[in-house]
Write a structure and sequence with these properties.
single chain; six-stranded mixed sheet; two-stranded antiparallel sheet
Length: 168
């Protein structure tokens, strides 16, 4: 089931609703420009409610499979992105100081908020800085084949090892 794009998070929090579903690829333009390919729809589950201080909150999880570039071999690599989040709904920047330490602020100025933007923000934050194939599956492994571990120190088949021998 597709998640709604526009929601009233305050009303959902007061009712304690749970939203589960998917977000279409076309509704994730910033993620699409950040990766080579989005392999399927973003799946999400968001529980709305009130915390102990009666603040309106939303907690959830979003996940999506993407294809990006391996930084070793520059070939495509698939990465599973998963983001867990907990946000507190606020309606003015003046309320930033009221956000509890265990929540991030979600500024909702109007009555309705774009749920896709929130989920896309969280997934973008889950993108790793660098992506690699697992060792043994990467064509760029030849660059790390010359490194062997001997206890605590790492010995490398490097041309500079000759200089180390000359220094001794």
């Amino acid at each position: 089931m597709a998640l709604p794009t526009q929601i009233d998070p305050r009303k959902l929090a007061l009712q304690g609703n749970l939203l589960e579903g998917t977000v279409k690829l076309t509704d994730l333009p910033r993620l699409a420009t950040s990766v080579n390919l989005i392999c399927g729809p973003l799946q999400a589950s968001i529980q709305f409610g009130l915390d102990e201080s009666r603040a309106k909150i939303a907690q959830g999880e979003a996940r999506v499979q993407v294809e990006t570039v391996c930084q070793r071999c520059l070939d495509p690599v698939e990465v599973q992105l998963q983001a867990k989040f907990a946000v507190q709904v606020i309606w003015s920047e003046d309320h930033l100081n009221r956000v509890a330490a265990n929540y991030e602020p979600w500024l909702v100025v109007d009555k309705l908020a774009n749920l896709n933007e929130l989920l896309e923000d969280e997934i973008l934050l889950a993108l790793p800085l660098v992506n690699y194939h697992p060792v043994g599956e990467c064509t760029g492994d030849t660059f790390i084949e010359g490194v062997e571990s001997t206890g605590d120190e790492v010995v490398s088949d490097s041309p500079f090892n000759v200089l180390l021998q000359l220094k001794k």
